[in-house]
Design a protein that fits this description.
The protein contains five helices and seven strands; from the N terminus they run ααββαββαβββα. Strands 5-2-4-3-7 form a five-stranded antiparallel β-sheet. Strands 1-6 form a two-stranded antiparallel ribbon. The chain is of the alpha+beta class and about 150 residues long.
Length: about 150
C-alpha cells in the first residue's frame, strides 16, 4: 500500500528531506547505506503519532493520498507512526487510539524506497515537508471515526 513514487527525483527529495530532519544527516545516510534503520528523533520538524497498523490502513484510505503526510509502519509489531505538525499534540492528546510522542522521541526509519527490518513507509516522504493534518487524523481515530464535512470540499 506504499504511496506510488515513480519519479526518481521525488524519491531523492524525500530521502534528503527525511535525512535532513535528523541532527546528523550523514549518519542517517551511513545507516541506510549499511542496510540499517536510521534514528531520526521527533520534535525538530514533526511529531510522531503512534497508532495500530490495521486502524492506520483504514484511516489512510479515508484520508486519501492527496492529504497524507509520511506514514511509517512495522506490520509485524502492529505499529504505525504518522508524521504530524509540531502543534498537533493539543488536538490529538485526548484520543485514546493515538499516542503522541514527545519531542526527541526516537523514530527508527528505513530509507524511503525500501523496507528495512520489517519497517516500511506506507506513505513516503516526498521532500515537500507535507505532514498529515491532525484534525483529519483525529477525526479518523476519534469517536465515530469520521472525517469532518469540510474534508470533502
Amino acid at each position: 500500500m506504499a504511496t506510488r513514487t515513480h519519479n526518481p527525483d521525488a524519491r531523492h527529495a524525500g530521502r534528503e528531506w527525511l535525512a535532513g530532519c535528523a541532527p546528523a544527516p550523514d549518519a542517517v545516510h551511513r545507516a541506510w547505506s549499511g542496510g540499517e534503520l536510521a534514528l531520526i528523533p521527533s520534535g525538530e520538524h514533526w511529531l510522531a503519532v503512534e497508532a495500530s497498523f490495521l486502524r492506520t490502513l483504514d484511516a489512510m484510505q479515508r484520508i486519501g493520498p492527496d492529504d497524507l503526510g509520511p506514514v511509517l509502519a512495522f506490520p509485524a509489531a502492529e505499529h504505525a507512526w504518522w508524521l504530524v505538525p509540531l502543534d498537533a499534540a493539543e488536538q490529538l492528546d485526548d484520543i485514546p487510539r493515538l499516542t503522541v510522542h514527545p519531542p526527541a522521541w526516537p523514530l527508527y526509519c528505513p530509507p524511503v524506497n525500501r523496507p528495512v527490518r520489517g519497517r516500511v513507509w506506507l506513505s513516503r516522504p516526498n521532500g515537500s515537508g507535507r505532514l498529515t493534518d491532525p484534525t483529519m487524523l483525529g477525526a479518523c481515530f476519534g469517536p465515530g471515526g469520521r472525517l469532518p464535512a469540510e474534508a470533502f470540499g
